[in-house]
Write a structure and sequence with these properties.
The protein is mainly alpha-helical and 69 residues long. It has three helices and no strands. The protein is elongated and about 65 Å long.
Length: 69
Amino acid sequence: MSKPTIDNYESEHTQFLRELFEKKPHLAEQQKEARAMWWDKKLNQEELKRFTESKVPQSSYVYFDWLKK
């Protein structure tokens, strides 16, 4: 067996995932559905504006803020 070069090297992790998707092609569709459910959300622009405007500036040294009081 020849040594893998940079051009043909594939990690064990990549090999595992490639084999998994070959054996279970329906996983790709489930993966897309799960991503859409948890991550691909439409942003409410009004809410986003409110969050941005309501940010409180952070003090320069956050760990001992109580010393200033």
